[in-house]
Amino acid sequence: MEDRKIRNWASSKDKNILISNGELLCGQLTKGQVGNTGGGVVHIIWKELGPEAVKTFLSSCQEVINNWLVLHGMTVGVSDIIARENTMVLIRSTLNKQLKKVQKIITNSQIGNLKSQPGKSMIESFEAQVNQQLNDARDKSGNIALEDLSQTNRLRNMVQAGSKGNNINISQIMACVGQQNVEGKRIGFGFNKRSLPHFSKDDFGPESKGFVQNSYFLGLTPSELYFHAMGGREGLIDTAVKTAETGYISRRLMKALEDVMVKYDGSIRTSKDHIIQFLYGEDGVSGEHIEDMSIDLLKMDNPTMEKRYNFLSKDMDREKLKHYFSDPEIAKTIFDDPMVAKDLQDEFNQIIEDRDVLRNTIFKTST
Amino acid sequence: MPINVPRLIKNAKKMFEITNRSKTDMTPKIVISKLQETLESLCVIPGLQKRKDSLLIQANSDATLLMRIYIKSILNSKNVILNEKLNSQCFDWILGEIKSKFEQSMVSPGEMVGSIAAQGLGEPAT
Q: What distance in Å separates residue A108's CA from the closest CA in chain B?
């Protein structure tokens, strides 16, 4: 029914998915295939076999999962987030390496060696550089933690299947929580020249500006916890404000567009018969039928095209050709009959022309 | 795009039991002319056949341009005969399927596309 990337057959991580005749032959099915995404299994079943088949598919899947869950419970616990000792050492040393880089930037700026980046003030470019290094610290240590997890790790499986969580959550739990932000900046100096009374004045180092080196598993220091609470509160406020705002935006959008519909002549009009579009999406195709596809032709060079599309190309084997036809006489005409040759040449020229249209008109990128 | 031609070919080959050793009864000329006929019949404007309006014909060919190029790039005579080894029965079925699938994928009149657009714009913000 479906096969993707058969070229790389042996995948050590079982990443290739092959479904043949309704049977999953290899690969892990995840949210990307079986979820509500376009081009996934559900979408293709709907297109090929209709809504009734989708209903059967979803019900059967649920039944299998329910019964599987009766035999194998699925849970996540502390045992899933404990990294090996040498991994922890590695994470620590990566963090220290990055922190040293940050310290270097700070000392550089204190002795006046900092160069400001174009379009940014001195302070802005300092912050940009520090942020870059601290983000690197979180990403690098996080990747080390991710590599530590085995194939059977339940947290990792949950993330990979797409049920809940993502890689950042894992690295925050196991490696390093990372920089806390308020109003898009590192934690500001709310007291006199410092963020908290724990620190000395004018300290621009990672610790005083809200970088949490610890993971959730190791636990946060008192000042880290305070910064985390500051960032967390802002996030909470944001969601509260955002829901109200987006709700109102949606309402206005809906009110503005509620009367737009497809008329019998295929045009898109409002209730006052004002034309919005002559043809829906300029091709008239309704959205649920669209599949993402790649067109090989767009990126094909002339030798490949010659090989793929031209009957008359020089490397064609005339003798072999007759095996393809039930009537071997046809093969002869391809090279001997000038009329046939002309038709084939015309076809090939047309495809080359199509490729140029693709490149210069349809998928034109710049002017 | 609304039609996945490689999958269509795969299904057709299974249906008509075409293997790598099958031989075709088609000439390249037949493939080209049949395909041409199908592509020309693709129509996105209701009642185009009745009204021979040059603007409408132009609009129709512009709307189907990408679809036609895509189909042509796969169902060209060399690929159909040498790689896929389709016979005329199978090829006719594929062309018929392309036509009917294309017609099915058109928006139906009465579709409230404004509401769909509003929801589509509003959803990512939530």
A: 42
